[in-house]
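User: Hey, quick favor. My workstation is busy. Could you predict this chain's structure for me?
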Amino acid sequence: MKRLYREVAKRIHPDLTSDRDERMRREALMAEANKAYEAGDESQLNRILNAYETSLETVQGEGPGAELIRVIRRISQVRGRIAEIEAEAEELRRSDLHQLKSRLEEAQRHGRDVLKEMVDKVEQQIVQAKQRLANPEDAPTMPTGRREAR
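Assistant: No problem, here it is.
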């Protein structure tokens, strides 16, 4: 962890540039790196280093060669983001809410109206509760537990 932190600092430290905008960007990255190191978050340190090394801003120079490197890095960034989005989508598909939605859609495909079924069931429970209230002597009795004296 310490070695990784030193590697991050060696690459992104703000004192390594004289450009004002680049210095500000590096200060923000270094603050993130410090926070990750203090939290013991090695994966975040790796992400910071990787993001810096693959950023478009680190490519110096002009011309077709530098532009090609920028385009390749941009493609890599987009691919990484697509992978993140796919992972998030898969996590959402595994969620309880999505499972419920899938079951409701399946019931609809089979001609069932789940909401109407739920309403009917609640109305039936209300009728039964009213009957129990109207005729408490017909309601099933609950055994009363007696405590034995010790």
